[in-house]
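Job type: complex structure
Entries:
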Amino acid sequence: MVDISQTYSASRRLDGAAGARPKRRISASRIMTYGILCVICFYYILPLWVMMMTSLKGMPEVRMGNIFAPPVEITFEPWVKAWSQACTGLNCDGLSRGFWNSVKITIPSVLISIVVASVNGYALVNWKFKGSEIFFGILLFGAFIPYQVMIYPIVIILREIGLMGDVWGLVLVHTIFGMPILTLLFRNYFASLPEELFKAARVDGAGFWGIFFQVLVPMSLPIFTVAMILQVTGIWNDFLFGVIYTKPEAYPMTVQLNNIVNSVQGVKEYNVNMAATLITGLVPLTIYLLSGKLFVRGIAAGAVKG
Amino acid sequence: MLDQTHTALDGISVSIRDLELSFGAVKVLQDLNLDIAKGEFLVLLGASGCGKSTLLNCIAGLLEPTGGQIFIEGKNVTWAEPSERGIGMVFQSYALYPQMSVKGNLSFGLKNARVPKAEIERRVARAAELLHLQPLLDRKPAALSGGQRQRVAIGRALVRDVDVFLFDEPLSNLDAKLRAELRIELKRLHQSLDNTMIYVTHDQVEAMTLADRIAIMRGGVIQQLAQPLEIYNRPANLYVAGFIGSPPMNFIPGTIAGSEFVGAVRMPLSGYDWERGPHTSGNVVFGIRPEHVKIGDAARHCACQTTVTIEVVEPMGADTLLWTRVGDDEFRIRLDGQTTIHEGQTLPIGFDIDCASLFDAQTENRI
Ligand SMILES: Nc1ncnc2c1ncn2[C@@H]1O[C@H](COP(=O)(O)OP(=O)(O)O)[C@@H](O)[C@H]1O
Ligand SMILES: [Mg+2]
């Protein structure tokens, strides 16, 4: 049994130090924590710093060799050149061509894969059919097969259906490769929503699509954001499929970047290469910055239930 | 197959015939038969996991039964879509559409049924008035209290002009005070409408206060289907007797010897209302409710008397519970709240045969 008078005096003692909140003393472990964090930040920021600085210098200044120093004379010339004039082995219209190719590849791939995967996930959770678990198992298994094994068979398939070298062939490949992980993502999210909501909508006479579009999709913004980020960054950053399944005119930005950076004609223009790399990375970066909060929320929500 | 006329009886709203449902190898419902009258308030009462929600989901069409048939208003709806059955359902978690306003929630079902706009307006307005929702129509569910949310959920069933309301533990998520309020509101609603209501709960107070009839379920089987007082006074078996009443009925095992019960106490059985004629032998369980036990002077006039020592006294305000033993078995007595009895006191107690129950020790059924 607890002695009441004792707990009373104990709580009095706790209340005792009234007034402003005492200043926290900086402990050794705290210094340690912040120290490590600073070192890690520095480690990640340094290359970005070097790239930014180099891309803003003219070639004479780059040749002077101090890669950490800020530019004496800021110039945007390398950025302009990277965008519109840099040469690959084939042409000299810079990254712009690759950028628009990437846009043409990324937008349909992202849209199609998200639409299909979200419907997949919804059907797997709410409209279980005979063998739906097996179907899901096979789909997941697909996520574990190494890409390399599938490269050549896909070449043959694309050739047979006449999409080899076409942007739409690449869209198809991206859509299929994104399917397992995206379906898993949506399935888990929809499984975490209350089942009674779905039942209520059925009693209210909503059908397969009615429930999906009017009830579930409006409350699934976070998970759609996660899917969008995963797909945009994954597809935008893809190099392998882009170089294999498209022709030079249709190369995505990453392949174009590689060709610019590795172009052997003339002098190596480090400032232009740095600018080109930064431009290429800008799209995923922007997406992250714009939707970071939703991304975290969606990741957390999707992780709740398996 | 049963023909339709089988249940086209007048006055029957919902009829369930030989219903069976299994999840894989697990039989959750078996051989379930139930007729519910038009306008009746039927409560399905049972412990958690006994299959109440499963039965309700079968009636709603959200689960497909593995056997048997369901008729609503004389129509065989066993394979009909939920929205075609003339039912509305209210869930424990409210299940409001979070992105829609209250008005959107109320009108969703009507829009799906392609009801004309003016008619939707009229019905939503009527439901809002009945459930005091007018000032809330433009709010999102997140901005409502639990009680208000549940009223919206009820309204969603109300606007659709259904024959049968199905409730799955609609008050369980509310705090005690609100639960009592909404219970009364539900009772009023039922009195002002002529819908059939099927109401699932594990709370016997809700069941006793709301029901026209209660069906007590256990392991997917209906144990007793009767009016609340009948269930209280004449429980059909030991399970029902122990389930209804709080604290539950006291049981004393023993035998019948001639015209007398012999156990930890002796009790002449003349005047007992036998279920199917008198028994003169056999192992039985004698049951008496805590509130039917008399103490002190009142006990001296009882047919059966004994003396007990009080172990625990629980004052509850309106009444007081005494915990003691008769023989080896725990024995509870419920008294008026003003009593001054204290722990350790020895008391004469007594009870009469007219409020007692007898159960067969083997079959556990009332005899
Ligand atoms: N989808 C399901 N799959 C397997 N078993 C289930 C499923 N739903 C319910 N059950 C089982 O059926 C039994 C009855 O469940 P339920 O009708 O929800 O009980 P109640 O509503 O009376 O608490 C429980 O034992 C439960 O474990
Ligand atoms: Mg239940």
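Summary: The radius of gyration of chain A is 27 Å. The domain at 96-302 of chain A is CATH 1.10.3720.10 (MetI-like fold).
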